[in-house]
Amino acid sequence: MSYSRFQDIAPDVAQEALRLMDAHGVAPHPRNFEIWFNYVSGGMPALRKAIDDLLAAGESFTAERTEKLYSEFFSLLSEGVQVSDATYRLETELDRLVAAFGEAGGNTREFGTALAHFATSLHDSDETDLKAAVGRIVSATDEMRRRNTALEGQLEESLGEIKQLQTDLDQLREEAFTDGLTRIANRKLFDAEMQRLAGEAAAENRDLCLLMLDIDHFKRFNDTFGHQIGDQVLRLLAATVKECVKGRDIPARYGGEEFAIILPDTSLENALKLAESVRRAIGEKKVINKNTHEDLGRITVSIGAGQLAADESA
Question: Is 182 inside any structural domain?
Answer without folding.
Answer: no
